[in-house]
Amino acid sequence: MRKFFFSVIVKKKETMNVRYYLRNINKECKVGIENYFASKKLPQVARLLKKEEQQIKQIMVTVEYFQKHNAFSVQIDIPLGKNLYSAQEQSHNVLKAIDFSVQRIIKQIKSKQKH
């Protein structure tokens, strides 16, 4: 298992720590996953969070490839104070699995903000 840790800057110098755990992923796919998540999906989540919340969180992204089934499993965890936002999806396409996981996280954040 490979562990990668990146600090991503989103808008106005707000840093978000993203830790990637990649299993059975080649180097080209690793770079694509990191770029896709950091540039397309992370800003979507950042827009929903308050400024105080953006500075204290760490996002953990776990991506695993199952060669026997030719499928990817993506799990995203965002511990935020007393709340833990978590989503896991499986798909034959890694980008679809990331999209679905982020959609679930966004739904969880929106429902928590309504209450």
Q: Could you say which structural class the secondary elements and strand pairing correspond to?
A: alpha+beta
Assembly type of the chains comes to single chain
Q: Which shape, going by the Cα principal axes?
A: globular
SSE topology string:
EEHHEEEH
Mean model confidence by pLDDT: 84
Number of strands: 5
Tally of DSSP helical segments: 3
For the record, give the distance between the C-alpha atoms at the N and C termini, rounded to a whole number: 38 Å
Strand order of the largest sheet: 1-2-3-4-5
Task: Give a written overview of the molecule.
The structure is a single chain. The chain has 115 residues and is α+β, with helices and mostly antiparallel strands. The protein has a domain at 29-57. 43% of the residues lie in helices and 41% in strands. The chain has 3 helices and 5 strands, in the order E-E-H-H-E-E-E-H. Strands 1-2-3-4-5 form a 5-stranded mixed β-sheet. A hairpin with a 4-residue loop joins strand 3 (58-66) and strand 4. The N and C termini lie far apart (38 Å).
Element layout with pairings:
Layout: E1 2-10, E2 14-23, H1 27-48, H2 51-56, E3 58-66, E4 71-80, E5 83-91, H3 94-114
Parallel strand pairs: 2-3
Antiparallel strand pairs: 1-2, 3-4, 4-5
Helix pairs in contact: 1-3
Keywords:
115 residues; alpha+beta; 5-stranded mixed sheet; 3 helices
